[in-house]
Amino acid sequence: MLHSTPVDRYYDDLLADVARRIQLTPTAYKEAVGHFDAVSRYLDEHESGFPAYSPVIYPQGSFRMGSTISAYDDREDYDIDLLLELALDPQSDPEAVLRLVARSLEQGKGRLKFTTCEIKKRCVTLGYANMHLDVTPAVLVPFRDPRVITIFDRHPQRPDHALANPEGFARWFDGRVRPRSVIATRATRAQVVPVPEQTPAEHKLDRLLAIQLLKRFRDIRCDRGGYDRCPSVLLSCLAAQAPQGTGLVTDLRSTALHVAREVSVANLRVENPACRDDVLSDRWPRKSGSNHRFAADLVFLAERLDELARADGTQVRKLDILKDLFGENAARGGFQQALDRAAAQSRSGQFAAGKTGAVSFAGAVPAGSVAAPTHRFYGEPAR
């Protein structure tokens, strides 16, 4: 087994401190769960007009997988993706189904307390003060693996009734990324599955934190560069398959380079491991060359991580690197927290080794107080 040095652990903890700053706050998470519960209860009651369709609603995407991040820009909000299974003819007209869902939700506006209700290409979006819910209607496909669905899509250039399995993908993702101790037993029927409890950042494994940091980096770089964002589900799928690093810094670097290689290929096609008919790359890139620009930015991320962990850089330069990669607030708050912790531990003479594969928030030393060895950022798997 490879052992990290005090310097390695310092930078692992520093990145973890930054990752803590991009988590949804407990208040925001509780608010999101409250909106989900309200919509679920409403659709199951007679006044919604939906009980006749046997509605089943459950979270999907980042909210389901525990990788949701806060918005880095005050002009943005965060989104919660929900699937609404209905007992409808799977060949129903997508436009009619989406209008049916929107009309029902509009009738409950006073109770659900959303501010806007908008029909999108495959979902109905409910807007709130600082977040929105995307409610995607679907039909469970019989005689297929559990939770394979057909989605109603009114986009003129996509199939009207595409197959998908977001819950199957989430279970696959859990098996690769989340620690077994926090994976809840999930019954086949989704309506008996509660929204997952929020996992504090300090209890998340390196790979889940790395994916959240990658998402924040993606948002900043794509917006800055003017190219379309790699979808979170596609990014999560590729990142989950990357070679495992030996600490958060090496894991993030290994993951970034793996994703860069994967998205650089011509005719990109990535399938949902739980449903080969569900092509996760079907809507990206929308702009020609976006995948190559994202790949170049991911290589840039790896280079900056190398520079971050070198001993010859100043603290000011290291803070600038973090700000450039992950945003002003997350970088400054995480950097200060790391320095405060390191100073306290230095005064007390305490030191605690981090655990391989997990983030430890103890055991840091000030970056300039020891000589950093030559880094070993090769993304090698733990042995």
Keywords:
12% strand, Beta Polymerase, domain 2, single chain, alpha+beta, 2 domains, 383 residues, 7-stranded mixed beta sheet, two-stranded antiparallel ribbon
How is this structure best described in words?
By secondary structure, the chain is of the alpha+beta class. It has two domains: 1-24 and 199-383; 25-197, Beta Polymerase, domain 2, CATH 3.30.460. Helices cover 43% and strands 12% of the residues. The protein has twelve helices and nine strands. The strands form two sheets. Strands 1, 2, 3, 4, 5, 6 and 7 form a seven-stranded mixed sheet that branches. Strands 8-9 form a two-stranded antiparallel sheet. A hairpin with a 3-residue loop joins strand 4 (124-127) and strand 5 (131-140).
Identify low-pLDDT runs: 180-193, 351-383
Structural class: alpha+beta
Strand content: 5-15%
Mean pLDDT level: 83
Rg from Cα: 22 Å
Record field, number of beta strands = 9
The rough form would be described as globular
Distance between the termini: 5 Å
List the total number of helices: 12
Number of domains: 2
The arrangement of helices and strands along the chain is HHEHEHHEEEEEHHHHEEHHH
- Most strands sheet: 7 strands, mixed
Instruction: Provide the helix percentage.
Output: 40-55%
Topology:
Layout: H1 6-21, H2 26-43, E1 56-60, H3 61-65, E2 78-85, H4 94-107, H5 109-112, E3 116-119, E4 124-127, E5 131-140, E6 149-152, E7 161-164, H6 166-177, H7 206-225, H8 232-240, H9 248-263, E8 271-272, E9 275-279, H10 290-308, H11 315-326, H12 328-348
Parallel strand pairs: 2-5
Antiparallel strand pairs: 1-2, 3-4, 4-5, 5-6, 6-7, 8-9
Helix pairs in contact: 1-12, 7-8, 7-9, 7-10, 8-9, 9-10, 10-11, 11-12
